[in-house]
Amino acid sequence: QFAQYAEIVNFTLPNGTTRSGQVLEVMGAKAIVQVFEGTSGIDAKATTCEFTGDILRTPVSEDMLGRVFNGSAKPIDSGPPVMAEDFLDINGQPINPHGRIYPEEMIQTGISPIDVMNSIARGQKIPIFSAAGLPHNEIAAQICRQAGLVKKSKDVVDFHEDNFAIVFAAMGVNMETARFFKSDFEQNGSMENVCLFLNLANDPTIITPRLALTTAEFLAYQCEKHVLVILTDMSSYAEALREVSAAREEVPGRRGFPGYMYTDLATIYERAGRVEGRNGSITQIPILTMPNDAASPCFGVSQPLCPPTPDITHPIPDLTGFITEGQIYVDRQLHNRQIYPPINVLPSLSRLMKSAIGEGMTRKDHGDVSNQLYACYAIGKDVQAMKAVVGEEALSADDLLYLEFLHKFEKNFISQGPYENRSIFESLDIGWQLLRIFPKQLLKRIPESVLAEFYPREAK
User: Fold this and answer.
1) Where is the ATPase F1/V1/A1 complex alpha/beta subunit nucleotide-binding domain positioned along the sequence (predicted)?
2) From the centroid of its chain, how far is CA 245?
3) What CATH fold (topology level) applies to the domain 58-356?
4) Average pLDDT estimate for 47-60
5) 298 has a pLDDT exceeding 90
6) Which of 90, 139, 215, 216 could form a disulfide with 210 if both were Cys (CB 3.0 to 4.6 A apart)?
């Protein structure tokens, strides 16, 4: 029997240890095999290999909740082995587009700039674009702690769902990050609903996101749970993909990444959503770190006017933004001013927000408040840049209002505590408090009927 493409191979080393690999290429009677655990220490003459004749499958079970696994789905929490209910292909099954349900239920995260201006729908895939040294891990942990469903046609938020689960895959992270997430889940009592895959910087990265998503699909579509999948750091995964591509001597694409990276990332990100006939859902929040934010893009311009920005045109965030339904942008300038969470709402986006907000879902003024806050913040940024050139004395009365709004928006709306859980209705009320800085005639994005109901100070 000849080797087959994508077949799994088991290696037995002379000292008795076993490793596994996958067939990448078949040439007549020879096969090229990628060893998942690395090839160091393998003696080509004394090592035996067995071709299994099957693709890579992972054991899955509802008992995986509350457990900690390594990047190869082996338990590392000193607990017993998991009794498998099923063995599933780690590449999953493609979802028929006709069988998908459009996401229309808003998930409340308790974080104002996300809930009001970049609302996340259940079944959405939305990444966090961050950079080295920014608190993206703290934001992800806060979302895990506080996530709840805003009920349709009711002004209530449901946090106590028995069928809510989190699958967390950490790829290429250091021990400190792994310990942070594990202790955070244990301290807030949610560990029994979390399946944790900890793939450290010295472990292989390639299969971890697929193992995590296969587990999530089992929990969502067979156990009918609502699963939140967090993948960090997708930049580590993409760089591992580049290493494998270089080892196979493939023709490189932009910045050395393989030409098929878009397709490969899509096979991960597209495994989110809702399916007809199943009550479960998979909401995906991948985290990636953008490189090159140490150097300023503007040579000869003073630092306040042109601060360094991460490279959002890098292939990893660029292709991720194409595939996913928006992005949440974590900003270094806000972080340097001690604002937490440092979410810059201007480059942030949620493409499915329009279907998950409004009357009957959140509140009828939600969309209008979001648009007006965006407009006022953008004008405030322009005024701030103009003030740096011409000075505050040259600004008009309206310009000074926008400048006041800018500072209060960042201080009162964006900034909040890591354990502060604001309901969507509290966040909208804070938005109205800020908009009352302006006279009614400057609020051009809000209809008269909504202004009449919500603009007066006694309005609720």
Assistant:
1) 110-294, 307-350
2) 25
3) Rossmann fold (3.40.50)
4) 91
5) no
6) 90
What token pair was written down for 335? 């972080």
- Rg (C-alpha) for the chain, rounded Å, is 25
Per domain, the residue ranges of the chain are 8-55, 58-356, 366-454
Which one is predicted more confidently, 224 or 460?
224
Angle at 22 (CA atoms; ends 17, 25), nearest 5 degrees? 135
pLDDT tens digits, residue range 201-211? 777 778 899 99
